[in-house]
Amino acid sequence: MYIIQIASECAPVIKAGGLGDVVYGLSRELELQGHTVELILPKYDCMRYDHIWGLHDAYLNLWVPWYDGRVHCSVYCGWVHGRMCFFIEPHSQDNFFNRGYYYGDYTDAIRFAFFSKAALEFLLQSNKRPDVIHCHDWQTGLVPVMLYEMYQWHGMQHQRVCYTIHNFKHQGACSADILKATGLNRPDYYFAPDRLQDNHHPGALNLMKGGIVYSNSVNTVSPHHAWEARFSDVGCGLQPTLEVHQNKFRGILNGIAEDVWNPETDRYIPYSYAADRFVDKKLNQKALRSRLMLAESERPIVCFIGRLDDQKGVHLVHHALYYALECGAQFVLLGSATDDGIYSWFSHEKAFLNENPNCHLELGFNEELAHLIYAGSDLIVVPSNYEPCGLTQMIGLRYGTVPVVRGVGGLLNTVFDWDYDREHSLETRNGFVFFQQDAVALESALGRALDLWNHSPELFQQLALQGMACDNSWTHPAQQYLEIYEVIRHKWV
Ligand code: ADP
Questions:
Q1: Mean pLDDT of 280-285
Q2: Is 372's C-beta closer than 6 angstroms to any atom of ligand 1?
Q3: Fewer Cβ neighbours under 10 Å: the N or C end of the chain?
Q4: Would the CB of 17 count as within 6 Å of ligand 1?
Q5: Ligand 1: which residue has its CA nearest to atom 20?
Q6: Cα 305 to averaged position of ligand 1 atoms, centre (Å)
Q7: 454 vs 132, 282, 351, 409, CA distance in Å?
Q8: pLDDT of 345-402, one tens digit each?
Q9: Residue 305: CB within 6 Å of ligand 1?
Q10: Partners of 160 in the beta sheet?
Q11: What ligand 1 atom has the least distance to the C-alpha of 11?
Q12: Which fold does the domain 2-255+475-488 belong to in CATH?
């Protein structure tokens, strides 16, 4: 099968969070299973060019209709750890992708509407006719809309779209201007409750809703989150739309890429290890302590890795830090914050704790350091308010770092409580789970984890090894996506 992924991220070249990991990992696995996969991405100025091999111009004269004129673009081709990627570079005053960041300004909707349009024009003009176009999140929600309403009349009537939602919180609400820019026009037609009209703000368009309405198949990234999105406020206003489209909506758990997240082959950790050489994890712990100037001592290391965002339960992250220190553990935090308030809060904490030999706060994004922290920690906390899938707990499991998580979304599908899980046998349990959104609940789970580490080290190690034995690879999820692709490509819509 011929699959093209259109996305705003692909790790490690463009990575703001889990979306990048998923686009890379899924593409790799689909190729391993014998399919042809190509990716279309924006050519950002700030992406990691050092991870692209053989970048060359592939299509220099792509003219993209935009408002009443056309924008000249160049398309470059290169390989990102074996994946064939096409990068679109517009030559326009708007400087859509040369801003020093991937997301985060008030023109994001128009930037990614342009990207969606340019990606379709590229397919059209270069005669690429994939069986399936796989789009991700609000940034590419307009792809199926334009495919169905415009491009199918230009010879792309056989292409089908699978649309994956990684985060319902960001939906790409925007004004009618987008219709004019993309040539969709007809505001009366699109501002309808069964098309792109935002469910909360009737004067706005919603790009994610467009993706749901117009795609042939829609999914989010875990079965439990699919349920939450339909039946709780986690759907962020899209519940009625998911209700209407329930027959094409489901949850498929993410995986983690075996070539990136594997303690046996990880290039970023000084000592490789595996379940049968678990003692070598201790050497990485020593290396982590030395790198972050933590005191060398016989204490467990608890870590948090993730965006410092309201979604991630920052108040509980903050509480976990102080609780871990109070219990005699060490704490390492690696987090990037886009919200100014959260950033200054954690900067303040960092300054306050600067002299403490038992903790280290690293603010910013650092892929290499993340690998060492996964390898060198004993426990990883993930106290999210909501979590569509969550990769950090799965990576933690792979590295024998026991997860302590809040039981929401994909965390509930991947972490099974050592003491209380009723559905999994003791031999397949792998972490600690709490449910309430408060400090007491977090303490109860983290306290149990630290107790096990302190008083039953053999059992703690057994739990860590059980985590390492979990299969969170892409093999099974990719098969589920392939089943979907097979169904939609034979469906006449
Ligand atoms: P989300 O997509 O909501 O950000 P996920 O748990 O799905 O969260 O994925 C997070 C990914 O980003 C993981 O690969 C994690 O290691 C990585 N990550 C998050 N924050 C950082 C950071 N500050 N530095 C390095 N890697 C990070």
A1: 98
A2: no
A3: C
A4: yes
A5: 306
A6: 7
A7: 52, 16, 29, 30
A8: 999 999 999 999 999 999 999 999 999 999 999 999 999 999 999 999 999 999 999 9
A9: yes
A10: 132
A11: 14
A12: Rossmann fold (3.40.50)
Predicted local confidence at residue 180, as pLDDT: 98
Contact 477, 255 (CB under 8 A): yes
Q: Hey, what CATH class is 275-468 in? A: alpha beta
Computed over every residue of the chain, the mean pLDDT equals 97
Residue type present at position 387: E
Q: Are 278 and 400 in contact (CB under 8 A)?
A: yes
177 CB under 6 A from ligand 1?
no
**Is the minimum distance from the CB of 388 to ligand 1 under 6 angstroms?**
no
- Say if strands 359-363 and 249-251 run parallel, antiparallel, or are unpaired: unpaired
Domain ranges (residues) in the chain: 2-255+475-488, 275-468
If we measure between CA atoms, which residue out of 358, 409, 416 comes closest to residue 385?
Answer: 409
Banded pLDDT at 493 (limits 50, 70, 90): low
CA atoms of 192 and 17, how far apart (whole Å): 33
CB of residue 141 inside a 6 A radius of ligand 1: no
Q: What is the pLDDT of residue 34?
A: 98
Q: What is the mean pLDDT of residues 14-32?
A: 96
Domains 2-255+475-488 and 275-468 share a fold: yes
Nearest-atom number in ligand 1 for the CA of 362 is 23
Cβ atoms of 435 and 421 closer than 8 Å? no
Q: Give 491's pLDDT tier (boundaries 50, 70, 90).
A: confident
Atom of ligand 1 nearest to the CA of 261: 14
Residue identifier of the C-alpha nearest atom 9 of ligand 1: 18
Q: Distance between CA 159 and CA 151 in Å, rounded?
A: 10
Closest C-alpha to ligand 1, atom 17:
17
pTM for this structure? 0.96
State the Cα–Cα distance between residues 123 and 129, nearest whole angstrom: 7
- Token duo for residue 408: 């929401």
Q: Quick check: CB of 391 below 6 Å from ligand 1?
A: yes
The 3-class secondary structure across 357-415, one letter per residue, is CCEEEEECCCHHHHHHHHHHCCEEEECCCCCCCCCHHHHHHHCCCEEEEECCHHHHHHC
pLDDT band at 492 (very low <50, low <70, confident <90, very high): low
